[in-house]
Design a protein that fits this description.
By secondary structure, the protein is an alpha/beta fold. It has a domain at 80-261: Hexapeptide repeat proteins (UDP N-Acetylglucosamine Acyltransferase, domain 1, 3 Solenoid). The chain is built from 5 helices and 28 strands. Strand 22 (201-204) and strand 23 form a beta hairpin. Helix 2 (14-25) crosses helix 3. The radius of gyration is 19 Å and the shape is globular. The model has no long low-confidence stretch (mean pLDDT 93).
């Protein structure tokens, strides 16, 4: 019986739990995986490995409360900090990464920032100051999480999908993404955008006419800015999809220019 079968049937041991945590910590196992077809990633299609999440939860009772001192400040927690980093930059000044989080080659963390257990951050991504990467979040390659970006965590319930930010996305300052939303490849979220699974994202044409609506996902290469819609006598926060990146944008325009031009 392999490790997956042991957790899916409940026939696992404490040693199996420890093995699973180590494999998640090293990136060998992931809470969620992007589906592929003919060797190519399928944009927006992911499989959640519930058995991996159950293994992470099973480790909590095995952990003992520990006291850690960092530059004279004492902390107390049951879940240990991550120890194994390879070919990443963790800039001094208040960063914290829990065991069971994986940071791939070329990842940079600016202080202070926090990465919770079960998170997976792929190659050459930037975690800027005051950013939070919540439990089980999946961050792709070449992603930029700007200052104060908040990526929601979801360890429980077991069947809940994590927040997923696919490759080459740019999240501007103060963006908040929670409740298992998928931000598809190449999307740009302007400063202050807030998206949950129930948030209606409105796509408009150049004249401001509504042409589409989305919930729970941001389409590939979409450019989204904060907005509002009227409901009776009040205004409701509503992100606005104002257009899509093109090859020209990728090559010649900065993110600020891109947002202004739309």
């Amino acid at each position: 019986m392999n490790l997956q079968e042991k957790f899916e049937t409940g026939n696992y041991t404490n040693e199996n739990v420890k093995e699973l945590v180590e494999k998640v910590d090293s990136g060998e196992l992931r809470v969620a995986e992007q589906l592929e077809e003919n060797g190519e990633k399928i944009i927006g299609k992911w499989k959640v490995n519930e058995w991996v999440k159950s293994g992470l939860l099973a480790n909590f009772p095995l952990c003992e409360m520990q006291e850690t001192e960092v530059v004279g400040i004492k902390f107390r927690d049951k879940w240990p900090l991550k120890e194994n980093f390879e070919n990443v930059r963790i800039v001094p000044g208040g960063n914290s990464v829990r065991k069971g989080a994986f940071l791939a080659k070329g990842v940079v963390m600016m202080p202070p920032a926090y990465v919770n257990l079960g998170a997976y951050i792929d190659e050459n991504s930037m975690i800027d100051s005051h950013a939070l990467v919540g439990s089980c979040s999946q961050i792709g390659k070449n992603v930029h999480l700007s200052a104060a970006v908040q990526i929601g965590g979801v360890l429980e319930p077991i069947n809940a999908s994590p927040v997923i930010i696919e490759d080459n996305c740019f999240l501007s300052a103060g963006v908040i993404v929670v409740e298992g939303v998928i931000v598809e490849t190449g999307a740009v979220l302007g400063a202050g955008v807030v998206i949950s699974a129930s948030t209606k994202i409105i796509e408009t044409d150049k004249n401001g006419k509504i042409i589409n609506e989305y919930r729970g996902r941001v389409p590939a290469n979409a450019i989204v800015i904060p907005g509002a819609r009227q409901r009776g006598e009040v205004m409701i926060q509503t992100p606005i999809l104002i257009g899509y990146k093109t090859d020209k944008h990728n090559e010649k325009l900065s993110v600020n220019d891109m947002l202004r031009n739309f």
